[in-house]
Amino acid sequence: MHFAMPPRKTSRPPPYAARQSKSIGIPPALRNLLRDRLRLVLAVIAAIFTLFWLLGRSSDGGSAVRLKAHAGSGAPVVIVTVIDPTADRTWTEKIKKNREDYAKRHGYSTFFPQNDDYPLKGAPNSWAKVPALRHAMTLNPTSQWFWYLDTTALIVNPSIALQSHALNPSKLEKLMIVNEPVVPPDSVIKTFGNLKGDRIDVIVTQDKDGLCQSSFVLRQGEWAKYFLDAWFDPIYRSYNFQKAEAHALEHIVQWHGTILAKLAMIPQNAINSYVAGPANAKNGKYTEGDMVATFFGCDKEKRNCIDEMQPYFDNLEA
């Protein structure tokens, strides 16, 4: 007599078996609803943690950057001046008004951060101009040019528009000083002689000692971000250069061909005439009619910027 053998068990159940086992318990519709709700809760928790993190950074004793929640003015030129909160308030308000009046006249915009808005890690406050420009670019993504103007400088001929005066490519090519030492008098690194105005991204001047930071112009773009990041490198800030960011700038211009290839050096009196200080002997001394009067060092060495600038303020207000 033969008995029927029981069916053999397999370790590979047919597909329907798996589907059948999953159907036991929570219905699929309810399971999907719970999963979606869980995702929503996790997203809300992540958003709350992010919000608290941002609030903590913004209230960090002034060391974090004070961001503004706007997309910028769209102005073709943004004038950036870093304010020292410990300086005389009356003077700094006059400086700000000087830029604002000029900007309103030509359809430009202004940005006035404070030097304690940025974590400089013990470096001199003069370094703040570098992150301030990066900050201004972030706030004004549709603006093309950013003009850094130090508090020791005044726009004394507001009728001159920066765009037509120095930024127009054909005009810029006529102003460019080529085949000249980057650092006078005998640097072996010289400005390029075959650059086109529409390829320039940073415009600087030179006094008798070297490249100036009182007044310079930078074009918006990825190259500008690279340039500012290279300039603000922690190594340079900690290197203890004698003239801080000024010597760091000269270093990167001379040692990085990618920077020199985008740089135009123009006559000092085009945007940075010195009323006092080490003016370029050829073209640096202020004369009436110049666009900018710079009182180099008036905030140091027991001098008084207000006293030195007051006659020029009076002329502008007359």
TrEMBL record:
The chain crosses the membrane at residues 38-56. It comes from the Eukaryota. Pfam families: Glyco_transf_34. Gene3D superfamilies: Spore Coat Polysaccharide Biosynthesis Protein SpsA, Chain A. InterPro entries: Glyco_trans_34 (IPR008630), Nucleotide-diphossugar_trans (IPR029044). One of its GO terms (biological process) is protein N-linked glycosylation. GO terms for cellular component: mannan polymerase complex. Keywords: Glycosyltransferase, Membrane, Transferase, Transmembrane, Transmembrane helix. Residues 1-21 are annotated as: Disordered. GO terms for molecular function: alpha-1,6-mannosyltransferase activity. Coiled coil: none annotated. Belongs to the glycosyltransferase 34 family. This is Alpha-1,6-mannosyltransferas-like protein subunit. It comes from Lophiotrema nucula.
